[in-house]
Amino acid sequence: MEVYQNKNQSIYRSLIKEIKKKNKYTNLYLATLCDLSEAYISDFIRGNRELNLKAINKILNDCDIRFDNSNETYYNAQKDFFEIFDCFLSKDESFSKKMRVFLNNEQYHYSYGYYYYHLAQILEIIIITEDYERLNFEFDLLLASNQYFSDEENQVIKTLLSFASYCIPENKFKSYRFIFTSFTSQNNIFFRQQNGCEGLYYYLMALESYKRNNLKEAIEQCTRAVKYYMLGGYLIRVLECEVCLANYYLLDKDYEIAYRLYESTIYMCKQLTKKTNLALKCKVNISYIDLITNQPQKCIDILTEIIDEKNPNSLIYLCFAYYFINDVNNSRSISRRINVKQCNKLQKIEIDLIQKIQDDVSSEEMMQWYMGLEKGIDDMILILKVLVHYCENKGYKDACIYFQKELLNN
């Protein structure tokens, strides 16, 4: 009973902090409303004292707010929030609409479902509005009271913190320290989402590990993410993680596992009723593996089947594949279709290489071009294979030997 009462006081405290910020009230003004000292209000705001319902109602009445303290409203807010959270985890298209309906319900805002309302606001800020100043205030409100939250509520906060820290620039988001241990949910509403939370958490951890160039750790964490998403039944998220995992194996040069994961994802995408571009990405990446494992014809077969003008990689790999089988005419016609404006830095390097091949540059020019590249870029193996093939065709023996050595080093 004491914990329940403390949580209610915590809700009132957070609500009054919100009112104070929104209306720019001073502690003195609130103290005057409640017939209390300014020091007492200050202690209440800091969490050192409690405020009785009579005083709380005076503040709420001043703002024309009616607080709903019924259990029914609390449980409705909880149920509706976890339904929205499930839509977020499963990437359901109805997420935005349900979020709007929930946030437009003032009854949830001014009730014991207050924290669910603010969890929904945090989700909206991260995904839609990007109001980072308000986001930090929302997290401050929640984390000041997290000792009174259930494990389920704390798990959601942990997930949202991880999601926010990944999505938001470091200089826009405060660094929060939040300790949470694993649990088994007793709340049937939350049982599925628990696994979704863990899945998203490990997926974001994998992305952070990849940023630090720790592929082994990224693979381990992404594998955990796949497992948790599977347990929760979040199929779209499972497939996204599988593609991410395959990409890490590809970067780690474990082509066999990467190939199998891409093929598995393509097969699963066929079973989906919901449209996704994951299968297309997988096919383009499979074509890349075919190229670097010396199977250019397989690459051509895949890409001519799914050629996508909006994906520069599919055109670039197809161009290289035709070049590998010495079909110069097709290689030239494909390269003309590449829209450089759509290309990233790496793709522009590869287009530059295609242009140099078509211009029949000398071995000295090609070596000079290669030495000017940033070391350790993605697709370096493919670039070197193309350079070796070019030098072999042109009879540039010294350059060919040099690029072959570079290829072994990569």
Mean pLDDT: 84
Global morphology:
elongated
H/E series: HHHHHHHHHHHHHHHHHHHHHH
Helix content: over 70%
Number of helical segments with 4 or more residues: 22
Given the helix and strand composition, which structural class is it? Answer: mainly alpha
Instruction: Please give the alpha-carbon distance between the first and last residues.
Output: 64 Å
Strand content: under 5%
Uncertain segments are: 1-5, 179-183
Radius of gyration: 28 Å
Q: Can you count the beta strands?
A: 0
Q: How is the biggest beta sheet arranged?
A: none
Short description:
This protein has helices at 2-23, 27-34, 38-46, 53-62, 71-89, 95-103, 106-109, 114-129, 132-143, 151-167, 191-211, 215-232, 235-251, 255-271, 278-292, 296-306, 312-324, 328-335, 345-358, 363-371, 380-394, 397-409. The chain is mainly alpha-helical. Among the domains are: 2-149, no CATH class; 305-410, no CATH class.
Task: Give the topology, please.
Elements: H1 2-23, H2 27-34, H3 38-46, H4 53-62, H5 71-89, H6 95-103, H7 106-109, H8 114-129, H9 132-143, H10 151-167, H11 191-211, H12 215-232, H13 235-251, H14 255-271, H15 278-292, H16 296-306, H17 312-324, H18 328-335, H19 345-358, H20 363-371, H21 380-394, H22 397-409
Helix pairs in contact: 2-3, 5-6, 5-8, 5-11, 6-8, 8-9, 8-10, 10-11, 11-12, 12-13, 13-14, 13-15, 14-15, 15-16, 15-17, 16-17, 17-18, 17-19, 21-22
Task: Describe the fold and architecture.
This protein is an all-alpha fold. Among the domains are: 2-149, no CATH class; 305-410, no CATH class. 72% of the residues lie in helices and 0% in strands. It contains 22 helices and no strands. It has helices at 2-23, 27-34, 38-46, 53-62, 71-89, 95-103, 106-109, 114-129, 132-143, 151-167, 191-211, 215-232, 235-251, 255-271, 278-292, 296-306, 312-324, 328-335, 345-358, 363-371, 380-394, 397-409. Helix 17 (312-324) runs antiparallel to helix 18. It is elongated, with a radius of gyration of 28 Å. Mean pLDDT is 84; it is low at 1-5 and 179-183.
